[in-house]
Amino acid sequence: MPQIPTNWSGIFTDSERKQSYLRRVRELDKNIGSFLSFNLDLTGSETTEKGFLGGLPIAVKDNIAVSDQPLTCGSRILENLVSPYTATAVQRLEDAGAVVVGKTNLDEFGMGSSNENSALGTTVNPWDYNRVPGGSSGGSAAAVAAGLVPLALGSDTGGSVRQPANFCGVYGLKPTYGSVSRFGLTAYASSLEVIGTLTRDIDLMETAFEVMSGIDEYDQSSVGSEVSGVPDSDASRVVMLSVDNNMLDNPVARAYKETGEALRAEGYSVSEISLPTLDLVVPAYYTIATAEASANLARFNGIRYGYAPDFSENPSDLMKKARHEGFGREVKLRILLGTYVLRSGFQDQYYGRAQKIRTLIKNELASVFSTADLLLMPVFPTQAFSKGDSEMDDYKQRIADVFTCLANLSGLPALSLPVGVENGLPTGVQFMAPSFGEKRLFKVARNLQDRFPLQIPPNYLDIGGLV
Amino acid sequence: MKVHDKYDVFIGLEIHIHLNTESKMFCSCKANYGDESNMNVCPVCLGYPGTLPRLNEKAMELGYLVAKSLGCKIAEKTSFARKNYFYPDMPKNYQISQFEEPVGVEGLVEAEFGISESRKIRIHDVHLEEDAGKMIHAGDITLLDYNRAGYPLLEIVTEPDLRSGEETESFLRDFQRLVRYLGVSDANMDEGSMKCDANVSLNHPGKGLGIKVELKNMNSPRFVRLALNHEIARHAGILDAGGSLVQETRLWNENRDITEIMRRKEAADDYRYFPEPDMPSFVPDNDFLARVEAGLVELPLDKKRRLQTEYSLTPEQAEFIHDDAATAVFFEESVKAGADAQNAASWLSSDIQKLLNRSSLSLDASPLDARRFSTLLGLIKEGQISGKIAKKVLEKIFSDNLDPQDIVDKEGWLQISNPEELATIIKKVMMENPDVVSAVKAGDMRQKGFLIGQVMRNSDGKAAPELSGSILDKLLGTNA
User: Fold this and answer.
1) Is the minimum CB–CB distance between B134 and chain A shorter than 8 Å?
2) 3-state secondary structure string, chain B?
3) Is the ipTM of this complex over 0.90?
4) Which of A261, B76, B108, B326 has its CA 20 to 30 A from that of A291?
């Protein structure tokens, strides 16, 4: 079992170090805005460094439940919610000794890829404060990139771990659907999403994944490890998605090409393939995601918890006002879309067809993996874009999800990793593996580590000094 | 001309029952009715963000049991769906229900209407779902109690095969009996553990279904009958006058004995069903199916018929005995222990029922068991006690929880059947009532009863009645 990075141990047993950690995070995060809440004080002096993750500070995306901590989901409607329970994945990390120090910013309910859809705060990219950190797990990505925590949890519904990891230059894992319990993850699109991790350290990522994964009686869609029969050895056959040149920005295209070359140099066989279903990925994804979201977000009605208007005529009026005033624009749009595609008489045309496409995509990927061990793809067509970038309007951001959504529609694991820095911004790629093939992903990432060493944003090079 | 001669009447039902499980449908909260408000709740049944449903397999088992008993095709694979609609007492604003793959479909159940008619009623489907919370309006505020939220519900949907309020009431009582026999639900409509909505339509003969009206708010099988008959008459009136019905939902007003409009249905409700992504399909394994099989019982109607043939009970007696499964078991055990079936049936429906009512006990919980009961009937048969004494013994069993033989011994209630002893008492009565004796001897036989009464009184009711009568006759010289 890999050890945790030594420079992070001892924060919670040495009160001086704890104070200095606290001060530094507060100071640095003023610039980045990665945390919506930071609770080091709450973790108290009773914290010892038991367990093999002995006192490892971790950040948790604020759509994942941690008992007695806020669970805002980046939304006005849950701004005041304190969670009464802890997500299974978090509980397992805590049981192993990790300490949740705070909750990170996100696009409201995970809907967005820039963190600009958060109703409760602005997070910027530690590489360039004028740029977005990506999303929706942008707060987690920024906190890890800046070295505020060695490990952060995110959730990946359509790329929400991998894309911000890519924008911020850290590793981002979207595990196999069902391998990590969703219990405690605020549902956006239940059949697509999974809790993932962001870190600068591939060994820590593997450790965290092993701790978090496994069957959970509280999540009936969780799957036990006995299903994972995929051997991690000899994963040497890589297929590379052939991508039109005009689809990728130049730095991204260059990084992608270089990765292919690096793999060959490392002894991998690399061939190109095209996926005929690729054009259908985004429409299918948004149909299924919004349909499920329309039901998943129906529970937020201002009655049992969360935002409620000061006055309402009756319970129905209360629900209407709470939702009208509590949800942001993008959330409302997706709820409306989802409601539309589920209408009776239209289900065959939209939801039903999207599910058929999903099956098609699964089958296509199954056939890809019948002759290959890993699929290499870009993560996102651009590097981190500018805040308020009119070039990257909502529609373009959604289209750009094509490479990441594939893993969510198919349920397969995918890992995004940084492969360099160009124009002062990180670039990266992602690997996808068959179900429960996470070990292959960690291995290929490790094999590329020397060629593409992880870089740290210039302002945050003194990571050792932080703690 | 009667309504049924002029029109075909179609009645279909949607019956909901609360299942008798210890915990709720999708979480481990107690499924307990009537606890203090909001005591049996947790993040799951309150719909907190991030929570997920966990199937209560016991509820699934009970669902299969009912589906099977209603002659349904049993699902080899059953799954859940989300039924989307907003309502303030529904924590998630969608109900986890079953849509495409319910536990049972296409059932067929025999129903008896009155003594001579029996028909098969088709069951459309049997499916599981969760209940919502309860809204309580108090002045200008609304309170919500979520104890009921997530309570396991079973919905049974019939085809429109019933024809009158009477048939429907009878069908509902049969159904209540069935689920009580199975032990799956209390099925009390007044307590809310069973609910029944009905849809009714009338049409000219042979024309098929008419425009249907949905009826709600009927809190007993009797109210279902009244509401349906009211509605049938209303429809007939409209059709007689050449008018046409409007598809709508109406509420039964039990204070005014009428139905009142609740809402018009412009279009069908769109619940936007889609498969529940949080719940994998359920595929029953052999152990599960064996448990279901083991839970099956003799259907009430079969039992009723068997009671008539096997024990020569009258339809009325059989009706009474089979109404409650515990009574039927008690009856059969008593007969097995030697009790006469006819006597047992009549005692059960009269004196025992009276005592149970008075003590508010169920037969199960009462001090009377089949052994004591058959002993008691045996004492009468053997002439050891009279029927009158037997009633006193029965009361003693209830009050003192003793065996009948012990009571009779202790109280000295053994019948006097020694002719000499009886003659002594009768002579004494004759001495004390010379006028009556003369009257009887003069031919006024009606007065003989008075003398027998006096004999009974003088013997504390212990004199064997028949023997006393013949001795009296002998002494009076009035041999009958």
Assistant:
1) no
2) CCHHHHCEEEEEEEEEEECCCCECCCCCCECCCCCCCCCCCCCCCCCCCCCCCCCCHHHHHHHHHHHHHCCCEECCCECCEEEECCCCCCCCCEEEECCCCCCEEEEEEEEEECCCEEEEEEEEEEEEEECCCEEEEECCEEEEECCCCCCEEEEEEECCCECCHHHHHHHHHHHHHHHHHHCCCCCCCCCCCEEEEEEEEEECCCCCCCCCEEEECCCCHHHHHHHHHHHHHHHHHHHHCCCCCCCEEEEEECCCCEEEEEEECCCCCCCCCEECCCCCCECCCHHHHHHHHHHCCCCHHHHHHHHHHHHCCCHHHHHHHHHCHHHHHHHHHHHHCCCCHHHHHHHHHHHHHHHHHHHCCCCCCCCCCHHHHHHHHHHHHCCCCCHHHHHHHHHHHHHHCCCHHHHHHHHCCCCECCHHHHHHHHHHHHHHCHHHHHHHHCCCHHHHHHHHHHHHHHCCCCECHHHHHHHHHHHHCCCC
3) yes
4) B76
